[in-house]
Amino acid sequence: MDSPWYVYVLTVLAGILTGYINTLAGCGSAFSLAALGALGLPLGVANGTNRVAILLQNVVAVKGFHGQGKVDWKAGLRLAVPACVGAVVGALLATRIDPKQLRMAVGVAMVLVLVLLFAKPKRWLEGRSDNAKGLHWAPQAVVFFCIGVYGGFVQMGVGVFMLTGLVFGAGYDVVRGNAVKVLIILCFTAIALAVFIHSGQVNWSVGLLLACGNMAGAWIATRQAAKRGARFIRWLLIPVVTYAALKYLGVLALLAR
């Protein structure tokens, strides 16, 4: 790539921010995709290349949360199965779905998440006493399959949907939900990445550069989650989800005119 040296530095910095936000909330890929675009990567290649950084970011995040004893491995791997199947479908559909319709649907979904953040704050902070027994297996499988389809397709924002499903569907508080979230995303990102590699839509040198930042951001985030707790993560989610809703619904573009 013939970009100036500082673009590569900004790519690593974008990776740090991406890894931090993705680990604690979601939508961090907005920063990494922007950085990959600045490097001149086509959107399809940027979408595939971003998965390299996401994969390694979640390796670090899972290790960090595991060291704190917060990963529910049994439930996480069980929920990862339908998410992985969905990720294959989403990655294969990545070039077939109308991007405008997808953005609108995601924008509406983000608004619903934002409503839940304000309407039921205790659920995010405390979870349920029955923990991962909120929904029966069949509804959970459907929910996480759909999230996997979205994650396989575009990745950006999947952490928000995943965390919402874990809090409201599986009954986790937001801290333990984050730990399970990164495990599930690690599993289905590996599957989706394989599809993009097969399609020749991965730039490895740029992906590994971005991954350096993502891993650093994830390392910082796992320690922030332990120190600051659920309340901090919920308040981090609110501006992130608000930004994503405005972006996907086209409000930011209108304001920029």
Q: How is this fold's topology laid out?
A:
Layout: H1 5-24, H2 29-38, H3 43-67, H4 73-92, H5 99-119, H6 121-126, H7 137-153, H8 158-169, H9 174-198, H10 204-248, H11 251-256
Helix pairs in contact: 1-2, 1-10, 2-3, 3-9, 3-10, 4-7, 4-9, 5-10, 7-8, 7-9, 8-9
What does this entry look like structurally?
With 257 residues, this protein is mainly α. It has one domain. The chain is 81% helix and 0% strand. It has eleven helices and no strands. 53% of the residues are buried.
SSE ordering: HHHHHHHHHHH
Largest sheet: none
> Could you tell me the number of beta strands?
0
Distance between the termini: 31 Å
| Sequence stretches where pLDDT stays below 50 over 5 or more residues | 129-133
On the 0 to 100 scale, the average pLDDT is: 82
Return the domain count.
1
How many helices? The count is 11
Overall spatial form: globular
| Helicity, as a percent range | over 70%
Indicate the proportion of strand residues.
under 5%
Structural class: mainly alpha
Summarize the structure.
The chain has 257 residues and is mainly α. The chain has helices at residues 5-24, 29-38, 43-67, 73-92, 99-119, 121-126, 137-153, 158-169, 174-198, 204-248, 251-256. The protein is built from eleven helices and no strands.
Descriptors:
257 residues, globular, mainly alpha, 81% helix
